């Protein structure tokens, strides 16, 4: 497919996603489509054609801006519907028990902001989270992960390889995945497109290591000791917008 | 505690366990108590005292034989109550889904015959099994594991260390653990004291490795691909005996 055709295809899909409420995916498609179109326009020698393209691009940028405003609205916190305080060394908490009930058939898009994905146990936590998402959100179509870029000096490709494995696996399940790197990211947040936003102080990583390794809690995290952290579940007021 | 007192204590507990139906634990206590008493008697210089001891030991041996007969009766298969055929590459099976419903409040003792416990994933499977047992069998008091002894040339203490960790962890939860090594063991069997016996051709190890490592199914084994194996669930006819 030529760059122009690919851009066109992405922008058509962006409009479709927007219309059916998959606004995170629409946002990604608009951004990618516009970037592709821009690079294509720059190589267009015909001045008239280029101006026409730029006009078209301007329209798409306006739409992308509108989408961005909608996404930001969705990500705004509304009212707190639940709060859980996890104390140091508490047990009895796994993702399902804490927020599984908010993940449902109406969740078609998920945004996870999780700054730290560099250690094996952190990738495992991500997979654990996604397994719950796949189990509970039968109509999940899009997953966006925002994390800090990490280059392990001993294995520089490690993060990209691991996240690439996860992405490929989800895409085999017809879930579009977008990974974005943001070096200034600090806060942890899980946005569900059904309107719930889960904020955990420590993000997904609030478990202590199994100690000793082979003990109850190695697999079933309801038996794992936790680090102190607070969980707030918010519901966005603009869910219907 | 002197050897004699310890032996006495074990034999008293053996009788107590026998009376309340914890016959696997009673069997272990009888065997250990008798062995301890025997070693003690051998060092007794007084001929008359020794003969009196030996008479007492004879009584305990008779009781231990009676217990052994009862245990063997419990382990005899009765009728098949369920059968599951797992095909190569099937997904959708975890321990809970296959046999969790047979593990209940009435299960106070479990015997697991699992010949192969040498690799990390095999110890993980054992912990996974025990987490289910602890979750479902609220009154579990005794766990006997029979496996093949394995000496890793690079790390000769590995098996003992790992099983020791698991044992200590269960004992902190007031579950007595007995590990026996049998080099000729082949068949896999899970005996529950509520009368159910679970036979899985491959024992606990019927899962393929996660491939790639970070993919759905890494943690939640309902998404893991399986190896071909058959599961038969039996109910012992002498449950009430």
TrEMBL record, chains A, B:
Keyword line: Developmental protein, Lipid droplet, Neurogenesis
SMART domains per the UniProt record, alphabetical: MIT (SM00745)
Source taxon at top rank: Eukaryota
Listed name of the protein: MIT domain-containing protein 1
Coiled coil regions in record: none
GO biological process: nervous system development
Phosphoprotein among keywords: no
Pfam families, A to Z: MIT, MIT_C
Residue stretches making up the MIT domain: 1-77
């Amino acid at each position: 497919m030529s760059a122009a055709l690919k851009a066109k295809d992405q922008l058509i899909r962006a409009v479709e996603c927007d219309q059916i409420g998959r606004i995170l995916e629409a946002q990604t498609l608009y951004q990618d489509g516009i970037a592709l179109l821009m690079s294509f326009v720059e190589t267009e020698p015909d001045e008239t054609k280029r101006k026409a393209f730029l006009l078209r691009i301007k329209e798409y940028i306006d739409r992308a801006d509108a989408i961005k405003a909608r996404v930001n609205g969705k990500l705004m916190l509304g009212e707190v519907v639940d709060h859980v305080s996890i104390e140091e060394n508490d047990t009895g908490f796994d993702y399902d028990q804490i927020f599984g009930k908010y993940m449902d058939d109406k969740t078609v898009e998920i945004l996870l902001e999780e700054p730290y994905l560099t250690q094996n146990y952190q990738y495992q936590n991500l997979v654990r989270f996604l397994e719950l998402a796949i189990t509970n959100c039968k109509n999940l179509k899009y997953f966006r992960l925002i994390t800090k870029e990490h280059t392990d000096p001993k294995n520089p490709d490690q993060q990209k390889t691991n996240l690439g494995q996860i992405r490929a696996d989800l895409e085999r399940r017809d879930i579009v995945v977008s990974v974005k790197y943001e070096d200034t990211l600090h806060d942890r947040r899980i946005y569900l497109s059904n309107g719930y936003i889960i904020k955990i102080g420590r993000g997904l990583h609030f478990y202590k290591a199994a100690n000793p390794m082979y003990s109850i809690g190695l697999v079933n995290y309801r038996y794992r000791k936790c680090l102190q952290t607070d969980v707030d579940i918010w519901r966005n007021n603009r869910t219907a917008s």
